[in-house]
Each structure stands twice: as C-alpha cells, then as structure tokens.
Design a protein that fits this description.
CATH class: Mainly Alpha
CATH architecture: Up-down Bundle
Distance between the termini: 17 Å
Strand order of the largest sheet: 1-2
Shape: globular
CATH topology: Amino acid/polyamine transporter I
Radius of gyration: 22 Å
Strand content: under 5%
C-alpha cells in the first residue's frame, strides 16, 4: 500500500537538476494573457445564448454562480502554485500532497481534458475557416474540409493545419508564443469592448423582466433541466482555462508574485468581461430572441442594424480560437512533460531543447495526437470529457489546500486563500454538483478512461516512476 501512496517531497522539487528544468522566461502580463486566451474563447460568443435560453435574464446570476465556483478553484490554484512553483499544475500538487496514485488519476484526466479541448477547438476553428474557403471559392476539395464522420469528408485539413501552426509557435519558444498570444488576446478584448459600445445605446431595462422566467432550478415540459442552475452548469465551461496558467509555474521569472497575479487576475478579468457583455446583450435585445442563435453577439448587432460591427465580432471569434488551442496545447505538453520527468511516462519524452528551453518532442507528440483527433472526428460526443477532467483537477487542487492547511499549517505561503474552509465548502461540492450535470455518456467515458489509466499505471508507471527506483 505504501508504494501506491508515495509522495514527492518539497525539498526534491527545489533540488531538481537544472538540465531537467524548463527555461524561466515569463512574467505576469504573459500569464494573464495566457489565462484570458484560454478562458475567453467561443464560450462568450455562444454560451450566453444557450444560458439565456435556459434562464432568461437570470443568466446574469448563472454567470455569477459559475464564476464563484471557479474563483474558489482559482484561489486554491494560486496558493498551491506559489507554494509549489513547478510545472504540472494539479498533477504536481496531488503528487506532493495526496500521493502518486491520485496524482496519476489527476494527470491522466488532464491529458484527456487538454487533448480533447485542443482537438475540439481546432475543429471549431476549421468550421469558420471553411466559410472563408466557400466565400472566396478557393479550389479545395470538400473531402479535405471535413473529417470522415461528416458526409463526403475524408480529413479535416484546416483543423490539422491550425494545430501544427500553434505547435510551431510553442516550439519556437515559450516567451515568443506568449507574446503572440498577448497580441491575439488584445484583438479579442477590443472586439468585445466594441460590442459593448455598440450595444449599450440600445439598452432597454424592460428586457430584464421577468428576471427568472424558469425559476432557480426546474424542468421544461420535455423533461430537460432549465433555470438559473441549469444555465450555470453549462456556463461554467466558459470559465475554465485559468488552470493552464499554473502549468507555467516553472517557466515564470518571479513565481511568488507573477503566478498569483496571473491566475487570480485572469479569472477576475474574465468574470467582469462576461458579466458586462451579458448585461449589454440582454439590454439591447430580449433574451428570447437571441437564445437560439449560434452566434448571439453577432445576432444582437444585426438586430441593432450594425452589420460592420457584426462582421468584426465574427472575425474576432476566429481570432479567439487559436489562442485557446495555444493555451491548452501549452498546458498539455507541460503535463505530459512532467509526468515523463517523474517516470510515469517514458523518460525520453521529458527532454528539453537546450536553445529554446521548451519540451520540443513532447509538444510535437501533443500536436500529432490532437491533430489526428481533429482531422478524423467531429468530437461532438466526447468534447464534454474535457469538462470532466477539469472538474477532477479542480477538486484535487482544493483538496490539496485543505490537506496542507491541516497537515502543515506553519509552512510558508506566499499567497494564502482567504477563509479557506469556506472556499473549500463552496468549491468542492460545487464542482461535484456540476460533474453530476454532465451527460451520462460523458460520465461513463470519463470513468472508462481512468480505468484504462489505472491499468497502465499498475503495469508500467508504478514500477518505472523515479520514486519507485529511488
């Protein structure tokens, strides 16, 4: 039993060989941009409509509830990331605090989350790119514009190309790719600011009455869940992505300061952005009108007779997607890298390029897997698996804070979660409740994925880990 519960020591993390360390090149502006780039993606452009359909104007309360759960997790990530400034995010925290077996489950779940997100977003981006191909009549065969799961499709070439393009940025260097990410995030924020500027002059307070037409929690005539909480369980998935910031801990110049600013700053900024955009959208057009639109913000601007602004917001959605791929592929390659460095995956995958200070091989492997999925599958059924992996990591990180506060209350903490028992009481049950709202198939596939992972762990990783050999 002891072998299954072995833990990393804090001292071992501090004594790590420099040859195995990632290059420190990032500061807090890069981290905030990384977090905002991961969080502000298609969610703000689409989920506001879905949420409004379920909760009406009460979707504002849904944003606040979902944001509160994520803020609880973000606070815990900030405490753990500054206490353990090493790559690996929730996987590394779990390895140090909860033991190797639970760390493997968290890491294996994060591999699922990040890979599926990269692939799904690449497919989403490809959908926008295909519209340009058709609009300008480019001579590209239809078989190369969709995967085999689509009638007439053979391979989704645009999805494959954007995946490898983003991987190329990451291989070139962490700072270089982070700088490009800052520019793309700035474009997204300007576009959303422009939307608010065009929408506010048409503000009508009558659109907020009744505020909760479907109540706090209930069911529609067809049995589907509706109300504020039903919308919150969906909107939650527009917030996650800040955990990608914690994977950059080892590459941060001043972890004690920059990680706290990056994690909490990106989360707070995105909650504010979502609330402001939601108020502007509902105030301009009644929620019932844009609830079923696949592009609600564009729909609102069209209703306000602002076609130019609508096109700019639509274009910004295309710009938004590669930043999400970049953030999650970055996080995925770092999770892979650290698990390989710990011996839970083949050690040769943990090599760092001497010039760029990045795990080139691991980034290429991540890109190949994500591109293969994006090119071959529509991913509609499995995309929700990313949400299950996220919730698993959130629960583990909050649990690590609780265990460390009880086990080692005197340890130096650069950042401390305020009222940590309250945060834990809100955060863990909140995440578990949101997990239960996932589709039944998703929950089954998540447990099946982890069952496969535990078999691999028992047969290979448990014996090959660095701690086992030590």
């Amino acid at each position: 039993m002891q072998g299954w519960l072995r833990k990393k020591s804090f001292d071992a993390l501090e004594r790590m060989d420099s040859a195995d360390r990632l290059k420190q090149t990032l500061s807090w502006p890069h981290l905030i941009a990384l977090g905002v780039g991961a969080i502000v993606g298609t969610g703000i452009y689409t989920l506001i409509g879905v949420g409004a359909g379920l909760a009406g104007p009460g979707v504002l309360l849904s944003f606040a509830i979902a944001g509160a759960v994520c803020v609880c997790a973000a606070l815990c990530y900030a405490e753990m990331a500054t206490m353990i400034p090493a790559a690996g995010s929730a996987y590394t925290y779990s390895y140090t605090v909860l033991g190797e077996t639970l760390a493997w489950i968290v890491g294996w779940s994060l591999i699922l989350e990040y890979t599926v997100v990269c692939s799904a977003v690449a497919v989403g981006w490809a959908g926008h790119a295909v519209e340009f191909v058709h609009a300008y009549h480019w001579p590209i065969p239809e078989a190369l514009l969709a995967g085999p799961g689509t009638p007439g499709g053979f391979i989704n070439l645009p999805a494959v190309l954007i995946t490898f393009l983003v991987a190329g940025f990451l291989i070139a260097g962490t700072r270089e790719s982070a700088t490009i990410n800052i520019a793309l995030v700035a474009i997204k924020l300007v576009a959303l600011a422009a939307f608010v500027g065009f929408a506010l002059p048409g503000f009508n307070a009558a659109h907020f009455t009744p505020f909760m037409p479907n109540g706090f929690s209930g069911h529609a005539a067809d049995g589907t869940k509706v109300g504020v909480m039903a919308a919150a369980s969906i909107i939650f998935f527009a917030f996650y992505g800040f955990d990608a910031v914690s994977t950059a801990a080892e590459e941060t110049k001043n972890p004690a300061r920059d990680l706290t600013i990056g994690i909490i700053g990106s989360m707070v900024l995105c909650v504010a952005i979502y609330m402001i955009v939601a108020v502007a959208a509902i105030g301009a057009v009644a929620p019932a009108l844009f609830a079923k639109s696949p592009a609600p913000l564009v729909f609102v601007l069209d209703q306000l007779k602002q076609p130019t602004a609508a096109k700019l917001v639509a274009a910004a959605a295309v710009v938004a997607l590669p930043t999400v791929i970049l953030a999650f592929m970055y996080g995925q390659s770092r999770i892979f890298f650290v698990m390989a460095r710990d011996g839970l995956l083949p050690r040769r995958l943990s090599r760092v390029n001497a010039k760029t200070g990045t795990p080139v091989l691991m980034t290429v492997v991540t890109a190949v897997v994500a591109a293969a999925l994006a090119g071959a599958f529509p991913l509609d059924l499995i995309a929700a698996l990313a949400n299950a992996g996220t919730l698993c990591a959130f629960v583990a990180t909050i649990a690590c804070v609780v265990v460390m506060r009880l086990r080692d209350p005197g340890r130096v903490r650069v950042f401390k979660v305020p009222l940590w028992p309250v945060v834990a009481i809100i955060g863990i049950p909140g995440c578990l409740y949101l997990f239960t709202t996932l589709p039944d198939l998703t929950i089954k596939l998540f447990f099946a994925w982890n069952a496969l992972g535990l078999v691999i762990y028992a047969l290979f990783s448990r014996r090959s880990s660095v701690l086992a050999k030590a």
